Amino acid sequence: MRYAVVCNGNIQNILPDKPVVWHTSDGPINFTDQTTDEELLPYGIYPYEENYVEFVQDKYHLNVFNYDIQDAKVVGTRTVEQVPLDLAKHTKKTDITQEWTRRIKSGSFMSSALNTRVDARRNDIDNDAQNLAEIINAGEANPGMFPILWKCTDTTKEVTLDDLKALRLEMAQYAMNLYSDKFTTYAAIDAATTLEEVMGIELE
Question: Which residues pair with 156 in a beta bridge?
């Protein structure tokens, strides 16, 4: 059996077993197996029981711990409460923004122009849209440089200037779709009226 240590009406500690030695202002006191729970009470040592619901570990619930100090025992209770809806919406928008940023920085899509998956990254190291624009500008100034090899997500393809111009349009549409998806998702979060609705919303 576990025991709760109570001092001035507050729980100080939860002991895994009955203490053997207890230090008081008058010196140490030894307890034995024959020491009853009633004899421990004057020292603030109470039998401890738990009444816990299943622990919920996510961003949308709070695990609330309460201790009920009764005459001859302490009962620990854990309840699970929903976070306020406004906080849940803020949390979900933060998660959506993080996922959206990840897609912006390391995104890719299936290109109809090249018939393969192509990168559409926008980060401090890789900016595929900018690289594409620079190559198109160079190709328009020097059409004879084509065809060239273009590195796609999983392969390399020989492409023409027209291929890259078509890809540029697709890449711009991909970016526009990402922005549209983000704000559509935000609107769905704002319109949600229950926690379950908020939790079920994901970026398309």
Answer: 151
Rounded to 5°, the CA angle 102-108-113 comes to 155
CA distance 152 to 173: 18
pLDDT by residue (tens digit) across 40-53? 999 999 999 998 88
Angle between helices 128-141 and 161-191 (to 10 degrees): 150
Residues 160-176 have pLDDT tens digits of 999 999 999 999 999 99
- DSSP SS3 for 175: helix
**Helix or strand or coil: residue 83?**
coil
**Contact by Cβ (8 Å): 4, 74:** yes
Distance CA 52, CA 64 (A): 10
